[in-house]
Design goal:
This is DUF3558 domain-containing protein. Keywords: Signal. The termini are far apart. The strands form three sheets. The protein has a six-stranded antiparallel beta sheet with strand order 3-4-5-8-7-6. Strands 1-2 form a two-stranded antiparallel sheet. It has one domain. It is elongated. The N terminus is likely disordered. It has 211 residues and is of the alpha+beta class. The protein contains six helices and ten strands, in the order H-E-H-H-E-E-H-E-E-H-E-E-E-E-E-H.
Length: 211
């Protein structure tokens, strides 16, 4: 917890000069836009090369729907290489099968109270496969089953500004950070408020698209 608070203090120090007093951000409700088909046969583990584009799970429209007043929204797909250490030790060559070309999507935007686009949100695909296997993997890796920010999600203070979620054949991670104040929180966003009020809505938006 001490390291989490130190990290937040550093973030506030770096971004504090770019915030404007008086303005508070508002939270809206997610709107499910489109569908993302994810085929997964019984017992199958889908290779990273066949994972969905993370930017199809959340869009700039989702940012605007949940974080009212967000402007200057930029979306950047990122490559991920989701191999475990034992897998890497057995075969250190990265191949197309072990790389997800757009397995992560990063958003940067400006919220009311900021003079620059300093707030961020990201979504990263963590696993794709048979829903039964994904559920078992999620339960095996989850940290705090008693502190969920939303249905089928897992997060606690050790996760700080992040959460891990699942929906059917998909397991994904969400994270981000901001230094602005929210009207609903009546003050600067804490990591708990971000997880429970913000990430939970984005988790619902992403999960609602999975087919």
């Amino acid at each position: 917890m001490r390291f989490a608070m130190a990290g937040l203090a550093l973030f506030l120090l770096l971004t504090g000069c770019s915030t404007v007093g008086g303005e508070r951000a508002e939270i809206g409700e997610p709107m499910i836009r489109g569908e993302v088909p994810i085929p997964a046969a019984p017992g199958a583990v889908v290779p990273a090369s066949q994972w969905p584009d993370a930017c199809s799970l959340l869009s700039t429209g989702d940012i605007s729907a949940v974080l009212l007043g967000a402007t200057d929204v930029e979306q950047t797909p990122r490559q991920v290489r989701p191999r475990s250490f034992p897998e890497f030790a057995a075969d250190q060559a990265w191949t197309d099968q072990t790389t997800a070309a757009a397995g992560e999507c990063l958003f940067r935007f400006r919220l009311p109270g900021e003079t620059n686009a300093n707030s961020t949100l990201w979504i990263r695909v963590a696993a794709v496969g048979d829903p039964a296997l994904v559920e078992k993997y999620f339960e095996f890796t989850r940290i705090a089953p008693n502190v969920p920010p939303g249905r089928h999600c897992d997060a606690n203070e050790t996760e700080v500004w992040e959460a891990t979620c699942r929906q059917g054949p998909l397991m994904f991670r969400l994270g981000g950070q901001t230094a602005v104040s929210f009207a609903k929180n009546d003050g600067p966003a804490t990591s708990a408020f971000w997880r429970e009020e913000v990430l939970s809505r984005f988790a619902a938006a992403a999960a609602g698209k999975v087919r």
